[in-house]
Amino acid sequence: MTSESTGPGSVRPGGRTARVRSAVLRAAGDALAEHGLAGLDLADVARRAEVGRTTVYRRWGTPASLVADLLAAMAEQSLPRTESGSLLGDLRANARLVRRTLADPRQGALFKAVLAAATCDPQTAAALHRFYEVRVAEWEPCVRQAVERGELPAATDTREVIRAVSAPLYYRLLTTGDPLDEAAADRAAEAAAAAARAGAFVPPTA
């Protein structure tokens, strides 16, 4: 996915600039997972990444801008969707990918921090919305293909089906101390697939 943004941290040429960005974003992710947005300090990130403070301040300027670029990079680097040939197989692959991400000690903590920050910081919220738009757009074709195969009603809101797969996993992550295992991922996929087949994602006016 390309972007026309020219905001802080958005220039992505190769060579040293790309290596600096990679190091800084990795350091920012570590710091965010450890301390949350409130404890994200640009000078600390520069120290962790072993780059000059001036570079970090000039390219990103604020912690929120750094988080926005981190989310953009995460969207770019996410694994592509799996095509199994069936709706349930595709949704299960999606759910298991989400589960692996959220169950990872670093990534799970990182997403918790970003979600918390997004509730009170508009720039972080906008970056988070863009991240999920990219991920939903990546997986939406598997539901569209299921509609084309006749597995689902023609008017199914394909993007909502993808969102419904992830929602129970995020809810479990944020509201319980229960582990996120593959059984939880498979249940989420099965529930979304069953609801889609029953027409739950067909808009009332369709």
UniProtKB/TrEMBL annotation:
Name of the protein this chain belongs to: TetR/AcrR family transcriptional regulator C-terminal ligand-binding domain-containing protein
The HTH tetR-type domain extends over: 18-78
Q: Which UniProt keywords apply?
A: DNA-binding, Transcription, Transcription regulation
The DNA-binding region ranges are 41-60
Alphabetized PANTHER family for the sequence: HTH-TYPE TRANSCRIPTIONAL REGULATOR RUTR, TETR-FAMILY TRANSCRIPTIONAL REGULATOR
Q: Which domain of life is it from?
A: Bacteria
InterPro entries in UniProt: Homeodomain-like_sf, HTH-type_TetR-like_transc_reg, HTH_TetR, Tet_transcr_reg_TetR-rel_C_sf, TetR_C
